[in-house]
UniProtKB/TrEMBL annotation:
GO terms for molecular function: hydrolase activity; nuclease activity. InterPro entries: Endonuclease-I, His-Me_finger_sf, Lamin_tail_dom, Secre_tail. This is Extracellular ribonuclease/nuclease fusion protein. Residues 270-412 form the LTD domain.
């Protein structure tokens, strides 16, 4: 919403988000994709404490939340734009108490139309959620009826032969954020694809690019933000997408929306729509051959400036432009800078196969002109050929497509202008590619780098070995990236360590180890080590000492360089992080480890690891007491069939409630033996709330 009190907007916007609202203190905002979506859903469901009646509850709420800031006797009308054109239907304001069902009245507009939900929203529960209701002129409300939203410009009204409804330039962002709220609050009952016309994004078939675009195009106004505050005071929950529109970008990708919290989000999702999703330092598709018979091939180019380990990359296909992505086709090996990697059909012509680095007859290479193909890194879409969910129409049948030399970045939105088209079975340029300002050379150049290992720990230990009882893979807010890190504690030798085996560093002049860490309860002088195994013995490369190198409850990054002049580089090297503290409560959390080999780095050949400049303070964590409470609250198994076990440091008289995703309380009681029998619950997702007398803790679980 773009209008209303410009002077007030300027005054308030300076200070309104100096810090993230305390409402989100127990939400891990560093997540992305469906993880962040689930986290926010848990929050808005568990904090929805007051359920309004449709009459008089909703009337009363809207008379508070939608008051005209210029006249407290009026409300603002959604879809309205002009109070002075003599047409009451287009009015933007109306008397606060002029509500009802006659011409000249305002009534309650369900932005997510009741009948477009499945099942129908009705007029209680979800149908009386004030986050989805707005004052609207009686006639305008009737005209919109249950029409889907569609793209347009100008004032509200019909915009195409389908009868789609455009809410108006001033209101499209408000609408998008309300739809997003309803989706995370009520799940698939309120799927965005059922209330708007657009293309699904690849990470979530229920979300469409229309609402992501509107969210970015029309920023949050002071009125919209104030309305969110009022409803939060009435219902208990907030609309996160009003507080920070960039959450949508973090979850679903698409165009970058306003980032009020300053925690990024543009490269987190893998949405299928919107602006280019890659960067100049990543791989991209450079050629696509869809020829006669089995003459099919894909080419991937590397102009990142470094050799890239392909193990993080996969290719997926969407058959006939519908349904989900296929199972991934995994790439392997290393791709040096300036070179390409070709995957060809195993029955393609010899001309094509002679250029191939890999051949296969699997479905990934049997595209036929209407099958979008995506390049994924760590399961996040970074480049695409074809439109995801584009349907059965052909975008590239019986043609060769070659990326233009001016294109140096991947793009999660297929753009025809980025490609040159050639006749069927053209393969004369397969096996090489050039970009403006670059070349198509091969081989290793001076100062070249190769990523030997990356460990993010989101799906496992990523090759690291758990040393024993004082090391484990941890999920929680002490992880720097994503949800997971590895915790080491105490001083139990290898049991307090994590080890990466069989790293071939023999060919390199230097090896760089970069990682992120968080310390908890480490006493002054206690330390942890980065160690290196040279084929015959262990050496401590760097010791990190509490009180000198780091403080507790902060995130740090560290980058250490080993030189072949000082260490024996071998083909079976090992790396180890080891804690040397004094008790189980003294903990280090290791995350996002990257090991890089460097060739011809003579300028630094004889350098030793520095003792202070290699550590960077990244951020100060929230109060650790608060974090510790949440992390001492765990449930298992999840998903659960019958018995849900609860680990929590809480008073013996702690009480609990279980909500379904509609906000209904389905089970209550006192938490006595820390085991809940949930066998009678229907299959689905639930929210567990535990009240220990001091605060309410929440966890989401799945009942099988």
């Amino acid at each position: 919403m773009k209008k209303l009190l410009l002077w007030l907007f300027l005054a308030v916007s300076i200070t309104a988000y100096a810090q993230i609202p305390s409402y989100y203190n127990d939400v891990n905002l560093s997540q992305s994709g469906t993880d962040l979506k689930d986290e926010l859903a848990t929050k808005v469901i568990s904090t929805h404490t007051t359920y309004l009646s449709y009459t008089p509850g909703v009337w009363n709420a809207l008379q508070q939340s939608d008051v005209n800031p210029n006249n407290s006797n009026e409300v603002i009308l959604i879809y309205g734009h002009n109070d002075n054109d003599g047409n009451v239907k287009t009015d933007r304001t109306r008397g606060k108490y002029d509500n009802g069902g006659s011409v000249g009245d305002w009534n309650r507009e369900h932005v997510f139309a009741k009948s477009l939900a499945n099942p129908d929203l009705g007029t209680s529960g979800a149908g009386a959620d004030a986050h989805n209701l707005r004052p609207c002129d009686f006639q305008q409300n009737s005209t919109r009826n249950n029409r889907k939203f569609g793209t347009g410009t100008g004032a509200a009204g019909f915009i195409n032969s389908n009868g789609d409804w455009y809410p108006g330039d001033e209101w499209k962002g408000d609408v998008a954020r309300m739809i997003m709220f309803m989706y995370i609050r009520y799940g698939n009952r309120c799927s965005p694809i059922n209330v708007g016309t657009g293309s699904s994004v690849s990470i979530d078939n229920n979300m469409i690019d229309l609402f992501l675009q509107w969210n970015a195009d029309d920023p949050v106004s002071t009125f919209e933000a104030s309305r969110n505050d009022v409803i939060a005071n009435i219902q208990g929950n907030r609309n996160p997408f009003i507080d920070n529109p960039a959450f949508a970008t973090q979850i679903w990708g698409g165009p970058q929306a306003e980032d009020k919290f300053g925690n990024g989000g543009g490269d987190s999702g893998d949405g299928g729509g919107g602006n280019p999703g890659g960067s100049t330092d990543d791989l991209f598709f450079s050629e696509y051959i869809e020829g006669s018979s089995n003459n099919k091939a894909l080419e991937i180019a590397n102009f990142t400036g470094s050799t890239v380990n392909l193990s993080s990359y996969t290719i997926k296909k969407q058959t006939n432009g519908a349904g989900s992505w296929s199972s991934p086709y995994s790439l392997s090996g290393n791709l040096s800078n300036g070179n390409v990697y070709v995957i060809a059909h195993s029955s393609a012509s010899s001309t094509i196969r002679n250029q191939a680095d890999a051949t296969t007859g699997t479905a990934i290479i049997t595209f036929n002109g209407n099958d979008p193909v995506g390049l994924f890194k760590n399961n996040v879409l970074i480049d695409i050929i074809g439109d995801f969910n584009g349907g059965s129409s052909n975008f590239a049948q019986n043609v060769t497509l070659r990326r233009k030399a001016s294109i140096t970045s991947p793009n999660t939105s297929y753009t025809e202008a980025e490609w040159d088209e050639y006749a069927t079975d053209t393969s004369s340029n397969l096996g090489s590619h050039s970009v403006n300002g670059g070349g198509s050379g091969s081989g290793t150049t001076a100062g070249s780098t190769t990523v030997l290992h990356e460990g993010f720990f989101e799906s496992g230990l990523d090759g690291w070995v758990d040393g024993g009882g004082d090391c484990y893979r941890y999920s929680g807010s002490r992880s720097y990236e994503g949800n997971y890190s590895v915790r080491i504690r105490d001083n139990s030798g290898t049991a307090s360590s994590m080890t990466l085996n069989n790293v071939n560093v023999a060919a390199y002049d230097e090896v760089e180890v970069e990682f992120y860490f968080y310390a908890y309860s480490m006493e002054s002088g206690e330390d942890f080590w980065l160690r290196y195994y040279n084929g015959s013995s262990w050496q401590t490369v760097r010791a990190y000492r509490s009180g000198t190198d780091f403080q507790n409850n902060n995130f740090y990054s560290s980058k250490v360089t080993l030189s072949s002049a000082n260490y024996n580089f071998t083909s079976n090297a090992k790396f180890r992080f080891q804690c040397d503290a004094s008790a189980n409560a003294d903990e280090i959390y290791i995350d996002q480890v990257k090991i890089t080999g460097i060739i011809n780095a003579s300028a630094r050949m004889n350098s030793e690891p520095t003792k202070s400049s290699d550590i960077t303070l990244l951020s100060v964590s929230p109060e650790e007491d608060e974090l510790a409470v949440n992390e001492d609250f765990t449930i298992y198994p999840n998903p659960v069939v019958n018995q849900l076990e609860i680990k929590i440091f809480a008073a013996e008289n702690a009480s609990y409630k279980i909500h379904n995703l509609f906000g209904q309380v389905v089970k209550v009681g006192n938490l006595q033996n820390k085991t809940l029998n949930v066998s009678n619950l229907k299959a689905g997702m639930y929210i567990l709330q535990v009240n220990d007398g001091d605060e309410i803790l929440t966890k989401k679980f799945m009942k099988k």
